[in-house]
Write a structure and sequence with these properties.
Shape: globular
Strand content: 15-25%
CATH architecture: 3-Layer(aba) Sandwich
Helix content: 25-40%
Largest sheet: 7 strands, parallel
Bound molecules: nicotinamide-adenine-dinucleotide
Strand order of the largest sheet: 3-2-1-4-5-6-11
Number of domains: 1
CATH topology: Rossmann fold
Radius of gyration: 18 Å
Number of helices: 10
CATH superfamily: NAD(P)-binding Rossmann-like Domain
Structural class: alpha/beta
Distance between the termini: 51 Å
């Protein structure tokens, strides 16, 4: 039987990998809704249908009733969110409210949210550290309450720093590993925000995509952290590329990840397959300087 699946943010980094997996099943009709704020046409996957627009307008842009909604279409950067607070409010708070309401009104069978692990930092107070983390944590509260108030069928995944193919390495919204690949290729120093000891659980994007699809199939409620258990500091990451490092001023984000609920491993047996240091070693070996 054909399933209609909506992926918001389908032209983004992680969304494109979810779509790549979903279109492998010929019974899936996959629709992306993306406003191309950070999404890119080159991330589009053959076999999916791409619609351009803000999630606030989801009702008009998606006349179909999807069976499953994967919601990734949000402003997705920590450090620049201080300067972009109104964009964060518009794209994440207003946009996500519309998506959640859409799912309630259309009686979508499963709503899956790409939450941020940043809320677990600072002893569970990470939501107060920057506008992005705040918006993501507020949306988790909203979705959990829709589960209570309206019995919305939902599951919440927590992502950790994604790396892997189609990561964006240029412009103001570039992400770390792709930026460092550019530094490496251009023979430049690696800019590490001080102190450089801040650690991250870099997680391979295809592991995240597989995890989110598994959670959509079998998960219920909050608590599906999708993290590589190996943590590395930003200095260790720059050194894995071979340096040299230039320490810079900036917003380091959280210092640690914090403890997140682990239902993806415990209930569903999800595991990661690629470690960031091995990935960097392979990149360096295949791009000799
Ligand atoms: N990358 C990570 O490490 C990470 C960590 C935690 C959570 N997440 C979450 O996962 C999701 C995907 O992140 P990503 O790394 O692929 O980022 P991304 O920027 O590559 O993807 C986000 C996509 O959503 C689109 N978008 C943003 N706001 C929108 C709106 N209001 N309406 C329609 N489209 C909109 C963007 O154009 C982009 O294509 C985001 O919700 C992000 O908060 C990512």
């Amino acid at each position: 039987m054909q399933k209609t699946i909506l992926v918001t943010g389908g032209a983004g980094h992680i969304g494109s990998h979810i779509i790549e997996e979903l279109v492998k099943d010929p019974n899936n009709k996959v629709i992306s809704l993306d406003n191309y704020f950070t999404g890119r046409p080159e991330n589009q996957i053959d076999g999916a249908e791409y619609r351009t627009g803000h999630t606030k307008d989801i009702n008009d842009l998606v006349p179909e009733t999807p069976d499953i909604v994967y919601h990734l279409g949000e402003y997705a950067r920590v450090a620049p969110s201080f300067d972009d607070v109104s964009k964060v409010y518009d794209m994440n708070i207003l946009g996500t409210f519309s998506v959640v309401e859409f799912c309630r009104q259309r009686q979508v069978k499963k709503f899956v949210y790409a939450a941020s692990s940043t809320k677990f930092a600072a002893n569970g107070n990470g939501r107060h550290q920057n506008p992005y983390s705040f918006s993501k944590a507020v949306n988790v509260d909203l979705i959990n309450n829709y589960g209570i108030w309206y019995k919305l069928p939902y599951a919440i995944c927590y992502f950790y720093n994604a790396f892997g193919p189609r990561e964006n390495g240029t412009g103001p919204y570039a992400t770390l590993i792709a930026k460092f690949e550019q530094s490496y290729l251009n023979g430049k120093a690696f800019p590490v925000v001080k102190p450089g000891t801040q650690k991250r659980n870099f997680t391979y994007v295809k592991d995240l995509a597989r995890g989110m699809i598994l959670v959509a199939q079998k998960g219920h409620g909050d608590g599906y952290a999708l993290d590589n258990l190996n943590e590395y500091s930003i200095t260790e990451i720059a050194n894995a590329f071979g340096g040299p490092i230039e320490y810079v001023e900036g917003y380091p984000g959280r210092t640690e990840s914090g403890n997140a609920p682990n239902k993806a491993r415990e209930e569903l047996g999800w595991q990661t397959t690629v470690d960031i240091i091995d990935y960097i070693k392979e990149f360096v070996a295949s791009h000799p300087r």
